[in-house]
Amino acid sequence: MEKIKIGRIVNAVALRGEVKVYNYSGYRERYEELDRIIVDDTPYEIEKVRYQQHMVILKLAGVDDRNAAEAMKNKDVFITEEDLVELPEDTFYIRDLIGLSVINEETGETVGTIRDVLQPSSQDIYVVKLAAGGEAMIPAVSEFVKEVSIEGGFVRIRPIEGMIEN
Description:
Largest sheet: 6 strands, antiparallel, barrel
Strand order of the largest sheet: 1-2-5-4-3-6
Number of helices: 2
CATH superfamily of the largest domain: RimM
Structural class: mainly beta
Number of strands: 12
């Protein structure tokens, strides 16, 4: 069973065993939809979810005092693949995009592979490790990204001049 990292416990909160989680997913309300999380290899039932600014505060079953919460500090939070939500069409998990080949629609040549996906604003940016060396940043918008095939292992792009040059 594959585990997917969705956050990290960064601190204990108050005295009742709550933990503060830095959320890696773009959707912090996700924790309200989960029955449990996995910390290291141990599953914990979620008893309560609340928020403190941008952080998620969780009360986990069996973690009932500050000492138990402190012991979880700096540990990663995971879910299982079955806990992933079904995404809308033309929306992808970053983990599924990384490693895809990037193909120039006009020439048919592979220009590189997706190394990372940045999410600085409303549009994602694909960071592509170029086959010829160097990197390119490609905005994930329909003007440039013409097709994404997770099953086929590729992203087909229509670059503009200067987009994929070293």
